């Protein structure tokens, strides 16, 4: 997606070979016009998928997933990384480890928002090792739902997430696939 690649080249910054900072348009300040294009692009790609829900993980996946859900006319379910006293009832949970951030969290969703027969479109901001996506696959399986597609805004193609998800039978579609990066150069897979 050209508009996204231009934003990455103009406003993104590789802090090292592994981590791309995009907090001026995706992770902190959000370019909603760009996110609307992102959502509409995902919706065109996945419109024949017979999805019943769009799912994402808080927090940076919410903007692209919301515009995707709006364009597809579907509900959006945000999986939680932090629970609280008011999050009660029948909860589904799984542990997700983040290699990039060196942390782990309990990914949680209320059973009432993900159920038997649901067909899920997962939208997320980054794909690295695929751990977050496997967390969603786990919760979907616990709920009796299936994940029928995965839309990623920025894929780090030099990390193993795509291969692991494809090996698990997933349809993975990324809008920008970063092949490699250094402090002053970012290269995409199709360039
Ligand atoms: P994985 O799910 O594909 O295995 O990814 P990993 O655990 O390595 O990273 C998970 C978290 O790190 C996610 O944020 C993801 O967005 C973020 N992340 C991964 N690679 C990059 C990168 O190159 N740049 C930036 N900016 N973020 C990256 P999160 O913990 O879910 O946080 P958030 O959604 O609240 O922002």
Structure notes:
With 191 residues, the chain is of the alpha/beta class. 29% of the residues lie in helices and 34% in strands. Strands 4-3-7-8-9-10 form a six-stranded mixed β-sheet, sandwiched between helices. The protein has a two-stranded antiparallel ribbon with strand order 1-2. It has a two-stranded antiparallel sheet with strand order 5-6. A hairpin with a 2-residue loop joins strand 9 and strand 10 (185-188). Helix 2 crosses helix 3. The radius of gyration is 16 Å and the shape is globular. The model has no long low-confidence stretch (mean pLDDT 96).
Short description:
This protein has 191 residues and is of the alpha/beta class. The protein has helices at residues 2-11, 32-46, 62-72, 131-143, 161-167; strands at residues 13-14, 20-21, 53-57, 76-79, 91-98, 103-110, 119-127, 146-156, 172-182, 185-188. Helix 2 (32-46) packs across helix 3 (62-72).
